[in-house]
Amino acid sequence: MGSKVSVNARDSSNSTNKKRPILANAFKHGNNSFDKRFNDKISADKRSVEKLSGEKRSSAPIPRLNSIKDGEPRLSASSSTADTSLLCFSTFQKGQEDRMNANHFALKVLFDGNTTDAVKDNIDFHSSSVQVLDIGCGSGSWIMDMATEYPSAQFTGIDQVALFPHDIRPANVSFRIGDVLLGLDCEDNTFDFVQMRLFSLAFTRTNWVESLKEAYRVTKPGGYIQLIEAQIRDPGDEVVRTFVEKVCSLMENNDQDPEVCEKLSAMTSEAGYKPIEDVRKVINLQTDVLKTELMYIIDISIESCKRLMFEIYDIESEEEFQELKRIYVESRMNSSESAFYCCVGQKPL
Length: 349
Prior knowledge:
Elements: E1 4-10, H1 22-29, H2 36-44, H3 50-53, E2 63-67, E3 73-77, H4 96-110, H5 117-122, E4 131-135, H6 141-149, E5 154-159, E6 173-177, E7 191-197, H7 205-218, E8 219-230, H8 238-253, H9 264-271, E9 274-284, H10 291-304, H11 306-312, H12 318-335, E10 337-346
Parallel strand pairs: 1-9, 4-5, 4-7, 5-6, 7-8
Antiparallel strand pairs: 2-3, 8-10, 9-10
């Protein structure tokens, strides 16, 4: 089966013609549309709102995260790299299960199901011999949804943290604590289908190579892997682009790839799989039916990155953070999109 590439832009016809939001201009030029109370506070603290738009970028070093005993990250200024996996979307933070569940159902709607057409056409999930592995299963939303839809197949979810259900789950589901980077407790050639998704902020470039090598080992000859990753770079207004630049700089300092979503096929090929299908889906955050769900996910995600944002934007109070979040979320909603890439590869027979 040859490689199939599909690009799907959902309701994106008006996204490039929208007038720049007044709020974003206020960030850049400091006009009266910006919240006066917050401007006064910034002035009193001798900080300019330009730091929010990036017009005057700080030369301060990228923050470094130090682990503390309760598992929560702590920030300190350092020229060392930051371990973003300890902060962004930390499983220890409140609301992460909600974010994972919302992500699951949004992606299911976006991709018209839990797997792509190539997977549906080539794997008989109604067969009792089919074995499925979800690496980094999180709260278990995807795997339990699949197990309910296909009660004959057998499903295994693996994650570092036991956010998944321990008692109430379909009979054809099992969960394990495990780390793909440390090696999976599975025999070679075990699974007909392997899924990995949303690892961009968790994996370094080396981690990607190691994890796909391990996924390849446990995939049966003729079996498939499905990868889904979000696009980090965003064609939004200046507020959005500035935030993205800061995140991408931090990722690069940690040897993480901000453009990994565009390289999924190449990486699966390097791991030994034959690329079968590539799909890119775009959600217009002004018009798409999924806009409310995505904005909810964005809001939770920003809360998860609070400590990081305090450092990279040089803010000191919860009030400033909430105002920054409000402005960023509004900019995303008025000028932005969310894009996701999906790649399917097959292990040769």
